[in-house]
Amino acid sequence: MTHFRVFPAPARAPRLRSGLVLAGGAVALLALVGCSADSDPAASESPSSTSSAQATDAPAESAAPSATPSPTATPAGTTVALECDEALTPDDVYAFNSNYGTAPDYSPEAGSDAATAVEYDGLACGIMNQSSGDIISIGIAAPNEVLRNQMYDAAVAQSQPVPTYGDAPAVEGFFASIDGVGEAQIFTDTYWVTMQSVDFFEPGDTQGLMAAVISHLP
């Protein structure tokens, strides 16, 4: 009888299974790693969101207070310590013209010299011709240096000098006729005195009144 020798087949199947097992283990490992990364909140937080949170939590800086003080307005003038019956007494008015007297309802017209004197903390007075009703408007002010210089320059440019109102430079006088209204002015180191009326035609028409007012200035 002939005997055949049977050789065992090569062991390939176990290697294949081992490879599958290894491959399956690798996939499972990757899946596990991916799951761990997704479940970690620190890993999913972006740097930009962290920076925004830090910037939001930071307290806002308050503006530094200004060290510059607010400017103080310069007063227009010094209050004139006179009443109208002191600046021109009844005797002064009578000596000027007996037909003039007080004007109880007097109020300076807007834009007049007397109204300007009031704006400079001064005094506005009026006397009235009892026959015609014409008013002599009188303004007395002690303006600040800047305003005084501005008015003085305007008087020099628009009026004629009048030396008879007082002794220069202590008293400097001016006169002008504008639209039928005579205007007399004097300037001292402190005061500005003005008179306006349709009854003033030349400098001499106001000389007696102006001298009386100057004599009563403080």
Quick rundown:
39% of the residues lie in helices and 20% in strands.
Description:
Keywords: Signal. By secondary structure, this protein is of the alpha+beta class. It has a domain of 140 residues: 3-Layer(aba) Sandwich (Protein Transport Mog1p, Chain A), CATH 3.40.1000. It is built from eight helices and eight strands. Strands 1, 2, 3, 4, 5, 6, 7 and 8 form an eight-stranded antiparallel sheet that branches. Strand 6 and strand 7 form a beta hairpin. The protein is globular, with a radius of gyration of 52 Å. It starts with 12 loop residues before the first helix and ends with a helix.
Keywords for this entry:
single chain, alpha+beta, Protein Transport Mog1p, Chain A, eight-stranded antiparallel beta sheet, 20% strand, signal, Iron ABC transporter ATP-binding protein
- What is the count of helical runs? 8
What's the total count of β strands?
8
Q: Tell me, what is the CATH class of the domain at 77-216?
A: Alpha Beta
Instruction: Give the % helix.
Output: 25-40%
* Spans of at least 5 consecutive residues with low confidence: 1-56
By CATH, the topology of the domain at 77-216 is: Protein Transport Mog1p, Chain A
**Portion in beta strands:** 15-25%
Span between termini: 167 Å
Please tell me the overall pLDDT.
78
- Name the structural class: alpha+beta
Radius of gyration: 52 Å
**Secondary-structure element sequence?**
HHHEHHEHEEHEEEEH
